[in-house]
Amino acid sequence: YGLPESLNRNNFGGALTIATFQSRAVQNVTYMLYADQASVTDVIPEVNKNCSNLVIPADPNPVAVSSTGTINFGPQEVVQYFRSSSAALLLQGYNNTALWTNSTQDSPLPDNRDPDLLACLNTTIAQRIPITDKQGGLSRLEIGWIVTGAVIGLFLLVISAIYVSEWLHKKRMRRTERGHILRDRWEDIELLGQKH
User: Fold this and answer.
1) Which one of 11, 13, 48, 191 is CB 3.0 to 4.6 Å from 38, fit for a cystine?
2) Which of 51, 60, 49, 56 is CA-nearest to residue 29?
3) How far, in Å, are 21, 98, 117, 184 from residue 114 at the CA level?
């Protein structure tokens, strides 16, 4: 994505934006979603609805991140990436020290992380910003083309089966006719042989 200020309105999804989700059950537990503006704006009402008993309702107007302002979070706070790492869920105060070492094992999440809220956020965000932007299944036009193609394909298959069946039948008839002709000729030869 590059620097936040390089993301203007011409870029897909808009400027990098952050939304905060505070736990209802555990004090001082704040998760943050960091992604393009369109994705964050789309996720907020779903989190407020799906996780309503776990989260203090988030502001529906997320804040665009600017490199000129103060950024008080970093990659060491990421607990989950989404959509090929173009969106990240952070836990404020989490420090994944493995990020700065050669360790392949992430630092454990703190005990007071509110695992129920984390699970709800993970599920809701994953459903709202999937890898593809295809939503709602196939359109009527797409279904119409699939049905039309299937009907045409079935028609061509039936025609081909009839043609092959006719061709095999004619081939058998020719073979049978040749067999009768050969048998008749053989009988003629036998009759001629008997006369001589």
Assistant:
1) 13
2) 56
3) 12, 22, 6, 96
